[in-house]
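Mods, move this if it's the wrong board.
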Amino acid sequence: MSESPTRQLADFAAGQFRSRPDPAVAAATRQSILDILGVSIAAVTEPAVRIVANTIMGRGGTPESSVIGTSVKVPAAAAALVSGTMAHALDFDDTHLPSVLHPSAAVVPAALAVAEAADSPGADIESAIAIGIEVTCRLGMAAYDPELRNSVFFERGLHATSICGTIGSAVAAALLHGADSETVSNAIGIAASMGSGLIEANRTGGTVKRVHCGWAAHSGITAAQLAAAGLTGPPTVLEGRFGFFEAFTGGFYDRPSLVGDLGDRWELLRLFTKPYPTNHFTHAGIDAAIELRQNGLRPDSIRAIELGLPAPVLRTIAEPIEGKAAPESGYHAKFSGPFTVAAALLGGGGLGVSAGDFNDDAVRDPKRLALAALVHCYADEQATNGFPHQLPGVLIVETKGGTRLEHRVTHTRGGPENPLTADEVELKFRLNAEPHLGSAGASQVLDAVTGLPDTSSFLALVPAFNSLNEEE
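Not the wrong board. Structure tokens:
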């Protein structure tokens, strides 16, 4: 019998942790860390974050780790629950395709919480995060069905981010606890019973999805701690008759995607860094709208708008159309094809649109609502053919004068084929962090992440990572 995928992932994790990632993987990892810190700090005042933080802070416990952006210390798993919620709260965290999951928002908060409790050196933190993200992506890729051309998780209404992210977080946490391959294998086996998440909130509302990455980080740390204490997991937890893939994907999984070329082929290098704080399915429409606007299109000249999208994404950002044209809140506007196009056509801050374009006041703006009402969403064949390896789309605008304007996007901004520049990555971070940290504080965090591999103690980074004014 061939070696269990669980053991193969555990052996890869333990072996890679000792050998360190290559420079490209290391640089991509630091970019993910910086990005997550920025989007987390930007989310500190979000109501969902406050709810989780207040609930957790009231429980007390051993003060081990800080919540990102504060000096308040709580147990490591509790800190990761709050920080992971922050990381995903604005829907501004990175994406992996074609798995359609957000790996860094669970793994980075989990790893940072454990690293602070264990006072891990920077090189270990970087390696653990890289490996945790890779395991998360591999699990997501294993559930990608080429015939469906979609994730089986997604087809079944499951949030792959929180389910796979729990295991990736457990691996990162176990490594930082000094686990060997056997203990990492047990951490995977335990964590597989802890991951969950439903994506109905994407369609019809609710704020629970914001907590998914926090719960994954919390559960991953808990699984690693239990494994370190001697609790064991089933060795066939992934592929077994009553295992992970049987439960979540009806038994479907692609083994080469899961364990093929481990250490040589890195899915981490396929991450998309989001330029816009919205659901990634909306980005092609935003890219196209910005392009048309920059080429002289005036919003008051528009008669009708057609947004062509991959067929599978319509149910997320175009249905029900009444709710998408007039979102009930700023958060729900992030999942609306019509509203995001309207915001981009009117012009926003940041890299084209910003968090301010998706607050509760923005969704009551008559100009945005009037433009959103003009948007008709449809399944575009070319866009569908490119999905989900890319998230393409086309925007067609008819002006009141009868002119027809069209812009097609095959590779959205921020992906491997159309990456953000280093300056754009830094700009995104500063736009997220400076309102809370100031320019000097943001520079301190930026320098800390850049110098992470040479840092001998995590505690040296705490003043930077947790320099948010607690009165925020």
